[in-house]
Design goal:
heterodimer; A: 602 residues; alpha+beta; Aldehyde Ferredoxin Oxidoreductase,  A, domain 1; 3 domains; 18 strands; 14% strand; B: 158 residues; Alpha-Beta Plaits; 2 domains; 27% helix; globular
């Protein structure tokens, strides 16, 4: 096979059995890789009703066929499992260098099953694979774990690990690779923790091949130029990072503020990408094969938060900033570092602190509940301390680590959790841009902006051609974007690359790399197949159409002030059309005709 | 005047595209371990440094190469490797003080930068201008000018 390696590694932590299996080429062709292939394998192998933190759940680390090649920004892998935060299928992707290294070691994916009796890590060196004792690493934070593993395996090994949050089975725990990159969402870190799996360390000396070298090299050369010549991928993301979104989102009243009570934060510029570039930014950093370089290497010299690391990205700057009504970039950046060190998802962490702040504001929780933590909106020090306590699972952090939905439910107020399917929504106010509300409500992994990012068309891009306040056409827009993104994720590409290239380019890269002919229609159809399979999984897991919704505040409480004053999300104007365009019944279940069209009627 | 490969670690973002371009140029696959250029990243500091053969004027590898597979090319200013003459003794790997010659067990060959015959693939692919193919005598002038600019500004502001 080309593009794909053609092999997978299966590790049963209960028995200690390690097996290498052939990858079914038909499956690879139909589901591409990463998010798609992982979902198909989960669908075939794991009962969707399984307890996500039980040994019966599996966790898969899946690369795409473009991973390891020099296709621009295509070095990603997906963690596919049942997510403990949402109870949905979880596909959480990450860049860095780990995914490509897995392929150079000779595997498209690793499937981890069962549960080890005591903490272990997996050490993959080409065809030599060992389960090693990790008791000495348990409790260690991500940088210490990573460096200890470099020392005891190989200096050029790549490490994906959990921090204390994953060990403590925090519902918002991330898996961190290459120290700073996160497979963040849906609580995948807790699944590793539940299996007593501290890390997967990999080092590979092999190759990734492509089917048509000359055509692939030519395609990459042309497409890289497209990315260089596009204002976002060629300039803004490198200079300002994703945090460049703060000011434009705030300008339209689309920046959720104080746990989505408002949507405009007057001092937002203090945490913007422009301010970051002018103050804390040391240099930019790339993931493997990337030409965009949005990574932020930063340093905080303020003695209160003195530290160095990577970040923040836009969503992180938002959730610890405006969403907590904090405008101290030093504190926001410190909170980001703590998440990376503890292995926490920044979006869910920040939004959970914001939720706790609103409960504190309303007197639902008091200093007694928070054990003295003064969780007032705008209290930067308390926000940072809340993150630290969550990472360590101490004090009020024991409750914060549940995520906002379970936290707010504990105190009888789930409506104050800004989540969809129990996962925290991202930094785009769904009352100010109708399409992104429909995305949060229908995303197969709960509140998430990167399954169907409509905000480019609704607000951010130069070609922002659709009225953000309109509901007309948003269902069709979203279905197209969701299908395209599912296919893109499956290739191993980074979503940010889609700012400068489209389905025609991904299809060309896939065709020349794998030798399997993908035209645009076939590529997008694959995305639709992946989307529907994820939906089928979720339905089998017990979710229903009733879960395709938003927090009541988004639907019933008009934005009180700012440029989007008066807006609510009109989900009910879009959802029936969305189901219909998807070929689903009014109950949100794919029709037999649709399943047959997608070759999913097994 | 001949050409040389100039490294600017301050501009390197650690994307490894140079390794991929190099391995594809010299083979027909993506195999960074068998690249002639390697990028080292310090994750804690977020800093990366590319390394490749410096084409030494008085090269230790040529001194120890018994079959004279490695020789100094006066015309190009480079150290040429004649793979047909190489006996695989790996003395060059031992001798290079920078670690810039290595042995690939898979292909039984010495890996050393050959500048792609004067058109380095790594330079072509680098998206960050961290690698430059420049005239050797003036190779450092970009850096010198950058510091001169600081000095200029200091005087102008004074």
């Amino acid at each position: 096979m080309h593009g794909w390696i053609g092999k997978l590694l299966r590790v049963d932590l209960t028995s200690g059995k390690i097996a290498v299996e052939a990858l079914d080429p038909a499956l690879a062709r139909q589901y591409i890789g990463a998010r798609g292939l992982g979902t198909k394998l989960m669908y075939d192998e794991v009962d969707p009703r399984v307890d996500p933190l039980s040994p019966e759940n599996k966790i898969m680390f899946v690369s795409g066929p473009l991973t390891g090649t020099f296709a621009p920004a295509a070095g990603r892998y997906n963690v596919v499992t049942k997510g403990p935060l949402t109870g949905t299928i979880a596909a959480s992707n990450s860049g860095g260098n780990w995914g490509p290294e897995l392929k150079f070691a000779g595997y498209d994916l690793v499937i981890v099953e069962g549960k080890a009796a005591s903490p272990v890590y997996l050490w993959i060196q080409d065809d030599k694979v060992e389960i090693r004792d990790a008791r000495h690493l348990w409790g260690q934070q991500v940088p210490e774990t990573t460096e200890a593993l470099y020392a005891e395996t190989a200096a050029d090994a790549k490490v994906a690990c959990i921090g204390p949050a994953g060990e403590n089975l925090s519902m918002i725990a991330a898996i961190m690779n290459d120290m700073h990159r996160a497979a963040g969402r849906t609580g995948v870190g807790a699944v590793m923790g539940s299996k007593n799996l501290k890390a997967i360390v990999v080092r590979g000396t092999g190759a990734v091949t492509v089917a048509d070298k000359a055509a692939f090299v030519d395609a990459v050369s042309r497409i890289s130029k497209m990315l260089k010549n596009s204002p976002g991928t060629g300039y803004s993301l490198r200079i300002y990072g994703t945090d460049a979104n703060i000011n434009p989102m705030n300008a339209v009243g689309g920046l959720p503020t104080a746990n989505f009570q408002e949507s405009h934060f007057p001092t937002a510029d203090k945490v913007s990408g422009e301010t970051l570039a002018a103050t804390l930014l040391q240099r930019t950093k790339s993931c493997f094969s990337c030409v965009i370089s949005c990574g932020r290497v930063t340093k905080v010299t303020n003695p209160k938060y003195k530290s160095e690391g990577e970040g923040p990205e836009y969503e992180t700057a938002w959730c610890f900033g405006p969403d907590c009504a904090v405008d101290d970039l030093d504190a926001v950046t410190k909170a980001n570092y703590l998440c990376n060190e503890m292995g926490l998802d920044t979006i869910s962490m920040g939004s959970t602190v914001a939720c706790a702040m609103e409960m504190f504001q309303r007197g639902i929780i008091t200093l007694k509940d928070t054990e003295g933590l003064r969780l007032e909106f705008g209290n930067a020090e308390a926000m940072v301390e809340a993150v630290r306590l969550t990472g360590l699972g101490q004090g009020f952090g024991k409750k914060l680590q549940l995520g906002s939905w379970r936290l707010a439910s504990l105190y009888g107020h789930p409506e104050l959790s800004m989540t969809a399917k129990k996962q925290e929504m991202a930094a785009y106010e769904p009352r100010a841009a109708q399409g992104i509300g429909l995305e949060y409500a229908t995303s197969n992994r709960g509140g998430c902006h990167v399954r169907g990012f409509t905000v480019g068309v609704e607000v951010l891009s130069r070609g922002a051609t659709m009225d953000k306040n309109a509901t007309e056409g948003k269902a069709a827009l979203l279905v197209g974007v969701q299908n395209g993104t599912a296919a893109l994720d499956a290739t191993g590409a980074c979503l940010l690359s889609s700012g400068g290239m489209g389905p025609a380019q991904y299809a060309e890269l896939m065709t020349t790399a794998t030798g399997v002919p993908y035209d645009v229609a076939g590529y997008l159809k694959t995305g639709e197949r992946i989307w529907n399979l994820e939906r089928l999984w979720n339905l089998k897991a017990g979710l229903t159409a009733a879960d395709d919704t938003l927090p009541p505040r988004m639907l019933n409480e008009p934005i009180p002030n700012g440029p989007s004053k008066g807006a609510v999300n009109r989900l009910q104007e879009m959802l029936p059309e969305y189901y219909s365009l998807r070929g689903w019944g009014p109950d949100g279940v794919p029709t037999p005709e649709k399943l047959s069209e997608l070759a999913l009627n097994a | 005047m001949s050409m040389m490969l100039m490294i600017h670690p301050d501009k390197c973002t650690g994307c490894h595209n140079c390794e991929l371009g190099c391995s594809m140029e010299h083979g027909s696959d993506f195999r960074p371990k068998a690249s002639r250029i390697h990028v080292y990243t310090w994750e804690r500091e977020g800093f990366s440094v590319p390394m490749m053969c410096q084409q030494c004027n008085d090269a230790p590898c040529t001194t120890v190469c018994m079959p004279k597979a490695l020789t100094r090319n006066r015309a190009t200013g480079q150290v040429d490797l004649d793979a047909a003459k190489c006996m695989g003794c790996k003395m060059c790997v031992q001798a290079c003080p920078f670690g810039n010659a290595s042995w690939d067990a898979l292909t039984s060959s010495i890996l050393k930068c050959d500048t792609c015959n004067g058109d380095p693939a790594c330079v072509r692919i680098c998206p960050s201008q961290a690698l430059a193919w420049v005239e050797d005598t003036v190779s450092a002038q970009v850096r010198k000018r950058a510091f001169a600019t600081k000095l200029k500004n200091a005087f102008l502001e004074a």
